[in-house]
Amino acid sequence: MGKGSGFGKVILFGEHFVVHGIPGIVSAIDSTANAVVKKSIEKIDVTDERKGSKGYAKEKKLQQFESINRMIKKMNLLPNIGGLNIWLGGSLPGFSGLGASAASSVAIARAIAEEFALSVSNQEINEIAFEAEKAYAGNPSGIDNTAATFGGLLWFEKNLAGGPNKIEEISLKEPVEIVIGSTGIVANTKAMVEGVEERKKTDPQKYIPLFQEAKVLAINARKEIQNFDLLKVGELLSINHGLLRDIGVSCKELDHLVDVARGQGAYGAKLTGGGGGGCMVALTPGKNLQEKVAIAIENEGFEVLRTKIGVKRI
Ligand code: MEV
Predict the structure, then answer these.
(1) In this predicted structure, what is the pLDDT of residue 60?
(2) Thinking of the domain 176-309, which architecture would CATH place it in?
(3) Where are the alpha helices (DSSP H) in 138-203?
(4) Ligand 1 site, residue 177, Cβ cutoff 6 A
């Protein structure tokens, strides 16, 4: 029996833009996906007991099988693998936007490696999970699997020429409370990524300046995070939400939850991840503000996760 886990994540700056080589900032959160893998005779069987959005596991079933097959191939376990019994659980809810797919891929890759007594480095786990992410995101940047593998607060820049991506740890004076609000809408990241690509191609005059703005925003955000100027960071988060609206990846539920959070005093709020549903994140330093914003979102009938950015790294 092999076991493994992967971190959930929240993208603070730059989702979608990162796919095109613009820098992004991502933080692991204190929730993980966990996997247990056992060799079996003939087929791959997944028992998915992660809690979360209704329909998440069902909706992602086909992509999940494709992702597992991609990992097995990447790990050179074909053709003699037989079957696998895979159990998935852990504290990370299956809300779209929290990197649940990447976290589960990292967890499964680690558990397979343990079950087959393979010595696999974290860098290799990251590469295997990146291969798996292609099933969920089509043309992923690699930011989700990187956060799921290494944890921490990271600066991420995809190398569009195919070389190693730039991954740097960002220091944060202390962990900071955030609230994640889930719209409950299961989003299709692949379709969202393709939509942005398509619109950027057909309307470069609108899109190229927005991508430039996203780059400047990420650079400024990194400085403000390092200065621990949380009011400034919050302001930049909200500006980032505006850019994501401009590139067409928000929706009325996300805009509503962002407004509710800001109305309750959140320092800033934005959608996080692929958009089109999924989750938003609000920066709410201190337990009191976190609770106030979380309750306001719950009172609107939505599920929340109270957590922190800048928590542990492996
Ligand atoms: C999804 O969490 C983040 C996206 O930018 C896709 C990716 O970077 O692979 C939308």
Answers:
(1) 80
(2) 2-Layer Sandwich (3.30)
(3) 143-150, 189-202
(4) no
